[in-house]
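Lab meeting minutes (informal)
Scribe: AK
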Amino acid sequence: MGTSGIVYASFDRFPAPKGAAVHIRAFVEALGAAFGPVDLVAIGDAPGAPPPALGPHVTYHPLGARGKDLVAQALTFRSHLGAWWRGRPRAKVVHVRSIFEGYPIARRKATLTDALVYEVNGLPSIELKYHHPDVADDAELMRKLLAQEEACLHAADLLVTPSAVTAEHLVSRGADPKRLRVIPNGVDLDVFRYAPPRPPEAGRPLRMLYSGTMTAWQGVHHAIEACRLLRRDLPVTLTLVGPLRKHARRALLDRCGDLVLQGAVEILEPLPQEELARLHHACDVVLVPLPVNDRNCVQGCCPLKLLEAMATGTPVIVSDLPVVRALAEATEAFRIRPGSPKAIAEAVKDLLANPALGAALSANARARVERDFPWGRAQEALVNAYADDLGVARASTRDNTAASASA
């Protein structure tokens, strides 16, 4: 049995408005265009949902991931992935995004693929406790997570990560720097179009926006407390956009219920990218209040919401962390000390008092994203890594070689 093309497997829901799904689409379409057929295997929507429109060289295979908790869902997904793989030819490259799909592939790498790519956006040994606090006390589960991460790190022929902070952490855990490529996230500049900051309007409250995960490790509580502080002196509102399970919604309402009743805080479900971009333009400032914790400062991240906000031109107030400094200079976003609602409030007042500052940040931020963070640049970097580090022949090269051989 010969080899097939590229298998891109991900224990993520696709399609979805989350940043992970945006990232997946950009990468699989680039790989398909450069190298030929790509099979995308991810968690699908309800049975019968129409397939997403992808590039002509990408075939989507939605799989189930049912279960009462994350472990059960991961095991279900692995089972479906194994069944899908049965009888398939050996893959030229398998690209995984986590241990949940990556570990069983790493264990059987020799029989499944010529090359394994491990894309490290997050590590469950660090992140999982923020989603499921009970796991922090489960020593056996933590040992298994670390062991499976190590297996994937050492089996991978190429490691891809969006953050230099993450790369440094992976090297500290034994990853070979020669196999490691840092490829930051990107922005669809046609979706997140630029508009200068909204001019002030008499009687209109200043509108702040927070989008993303509604958890303490992302800093949403600091955004809420900053709103509460500002309302002592200014008419302000805060729009929160992101996914919320029932218990998380209750916890969020417990924290900001009074502000919701006052009309100062509105909570929205995740929005399609086009609607999210329009919402940015309807706000005066975007908050990215990442706190100091091991997820942000040890593991690292490349916050897509920061790049998207910078692209839209709405001034951004963001925590001054190493992962942020790699994406935004002080002339491109208003960087503040992390973990401080007071610092957020002071920055909002500074922007309100100095419209020229907001205008300068806005223009500089858009210019930075156009230069360094369009998705096309990330896609090109990934394709080059496949070609240069793994030796995968581009489709155009294979076609030319075949044509020469037959001439």
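Next up, CB showed the second protein from the same session:
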Amino acid sequence: MRRFSAHRIVSFFLAGVIMSCKKEPVIPVSSEAVQYITLTAPEGFPAIKINSDNPLSNQGVELGRLLFYDVRLSGNNKVSCASCHSQRLAFSDGVALTNAGVSGQNLERHSPALINLAWANGFFWDGGSKNLESQAFGPITNMHEMQQDLNELEFELKQVPEYVKRFSDIFKDGVKATNVAKALAQFQLTLISSNSKYDKFKLGEISLNAQELRGLNLIHIKCKSCHSGELFTDNAYHNNGIDDVYSDEHEGIHQGRYRITHDPSDLGSFKTPTLRNVMLTAPYMHDGRFKNIDEVLEHYNSGLKKSSTVDPLLFQNNKQLGVPISPKEKLDIKAFLMALTDNDFITNKKFSNAN
């Protein structure tokens, strides 16, 4: 944790003078009374449970959106949350292991897409954070990501009068790092994707073609054990056979859920991602090793590695390890996965940068 010194304070003062000459992002004024809101689950989705310590409000969501796109959250004022979570890619980043962080070094894990987080029961690939509020501090303070000192973050935000007002309107204690996390969580909870071609089919508004219907049926037969329900994820952790050796290097980051639980049965288990918008979120897996969906399907068909913790659900072919998928079935599955793309989600201006 960096600490302030006389030299540091002078540096902040000089930085403020220099920054005052630059064109800063405009933070729109908000003077309305706090308007609390309730998220409504789309038809067929499970009920939503919101953290009672962080009630949603229109103002809180909007503040979170502004912060999500603000580079002040990083130590070098060059990296925002959106640097690794682009709306046009369903809030993923399109690279295997990003080096967009402050250090410029490649991360050890792939940036996950941010989709339907209101239903998640754990965050990061290993579930190391239980809620969105605590999750936010990971990337903000990580030396290879945003590398921001929380005291400095508060200091910088307090130099922006409209931020001071917005925080004070929503939170009794104003500009605090904890409230930054709360606002970010409120915004991210609204990132709900439920208007794909498949959803319109479920509502009886349109039809799926024959190939898409075959793909939907194949997903139910071969994939629903993990990619279940309208969320197309069980939000659980599975060893899906991509490795059979689990290194303890980099603080055990490649050991999956075991890193959190220390339960030997969790070795190599990672969180099940949703299939919604999956055709936008390549590359795939916790380390982005598979470049496209064809590589993913072939992995399940013939590339699974056996270990003592590989998920029993993957023994499908007469109790042999693997999920048999023919070339024709791959085409059908891909056709259906395309029907899970939600174009409204990736163009919704409520999720976009306000500046």
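CB comment: Strands lie at 237-238, 270-271.
No objections, moving on.
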